Amino acid sequence: MTDISTSTLWWEKRTHTCGSLSPKDVGCSVILMGWVHHRRDHGGLVFVDLRDRYGITQIVFAPQAVKSEVAFSAEATSQAMPQEAVSDKSLAFDAITQSHLIRNEWVLAVRGQVVERPEGTINTKIATGGIEIQCVEVKILNSALTPIFPIEDQVEVSEEIRLQYRFLDLRRPIMRDRLVLRHQIALETRRYLDRLNFLEIETPLLIKNTPEGAREYVVPSRVNPGKFFVLPQSPQLLKQICMISGLDRYFQIAKCFRDEDLRADRQPEFTQIDLEMSFITEHDIYEVGEGLIQALFENILHQSIQFLPKLSYQMAIDRYGSDKPDLRYELPLVHVEAIAQKSTFKVFRDVLEQQGMIQAINAKGGAVFSRKDLDELTSLVSKWGAKGMAWFRVKDGRLDSNIVKYFEPSVQSELMQHLNAEEGDLLLFCADTPKVVQSALGALRQELAQRLGMLKKGPQWALTWVVDFPCFEKDEHGKFMAVNHPFTSPKQEDLHWLDDDPLKAQARAYDMILNGVEIGGGSIRIHNAQVQSKVFKILNISPEEAERNFGFLLKALSYGAPPHGGMAFGLDRLVMLLSGASSIRDVIAFPKTAKAVCLMTGAPSILDPTFLEELNLKLDLEK
Fold first, then answer.
1. Alpha-carbon distance 228 to 606, whole Å?
2. Which of 557, 452, 622 shows the shortest CA–CA distance to 241?
3. Whole-model pTM above 0.70?
């Protein structure tokens, strides 16, 4: 420990942090440094809560007993401190307090003695609440402008302002704690995978363009005029190369980039926990993935967590309207086509004639919803393509609705029995194409859970796998697309469907779902060059295009590739869920907005024309 009694520059090194002292340190001489969180002038005494990353300690200043020194840059003091105070380097602390010079967010070094707080003044809300520091000497290390918003957890300020002043936002305890949690998750991940003999291998950020679905960020090459790198969507092909190279077990906490439309759980640059293994099956992936999540919960949150039974993709879509269902509540989608056929309701009958789908949700206790509520719910499903929403209240043992006349009493009874309807329930129906019905009711299911308070009543965590995805789907133009990515292996027993009917082929793919959020996903990869070429053909990727974009992978596969597979966890999403944040922007130190802009730095910015010339680029912004 520094000998603070003889040091002439005592303020250059702290002895303790603002969260480390306790009653066992009473009597110790200490040096603390940090920001003024709050300042309270009680006449004869001044109290300052000094804050750093580790916590808050109360400092007590008795004016007659305190020396003070002021250390400022000219620029800082000219904005925040009177000139007469700057010129007097031996300014007494009493004068500082009387002039109200020390303000929130000023940076101080404090030397003093740890004492117990007087009886009745102990603060049980903070770790250091049993002690305080009797200040002997203070050094003002820097002044500060008045913060644009309070440095507190609960602040009423727009996200735009918080992002613009991120250097202040990150001082708030809640933001600090989220970044601490992020560090702990990354550290525990490395420990866990190291125990399982994984190697952490870095892959490059400047790579070849390999179209895999999402739009890529492009980087021009100055030394190779007319040629470009891209930033990787993921290390997908490179981690497969690691397996072909015999490295057996790879992982990386990898930066990934996608130039796509954003939302709360997306960023143009994001981080994933990436892993790959050789000579394995899906069950090996399940074991490693489940073990990692359980280790994170047990060692960081100090909670145990269990996986619910796996769901097939078709079961998830059919029952919950989503391939990432929130299983903290039930609210299943129920097919009612057979019963709807017995009604005379034209909307239902027209949909059935067109081979459409009719499903319903029983919103338990939802009969209390007002007509305004029902209009809002109808507006919600319309955003997913639904043309409307039919509904019935269960009232006095019967169905009540403006369309009830189209349903005979026997049909009403059958509906109530089929949907397990009871007094006070609300039955909601959607009739359209399968995609519209399932998407609309899947979104409606989530909204109902919020409005009915189901999230407060149910379990805190619901974790499962969704498996048995299809290999392919068709876009609106009838073109085949890979549901996962082009390197996902079909099931061995479904390989024949690649020739006969690709839509029937199931993929060896899997997603891990936590509370309705996909936190990880992956697949067993194609390790046979012939099968890979066949998949490219289905996706209308010509041999020339395949060679141009993926030639290095096809060449590597022909040199003896082992069976291999892996997955990636979204680190940002994991931290968001485990911290209780509502957006990944709140768990990334310096995120972008929904328009992919950094409000703090002003990126992206306009480049100097000379720089563009060096890159052999010209801009044509009129197109």
1. 19
2. 557
3. yes
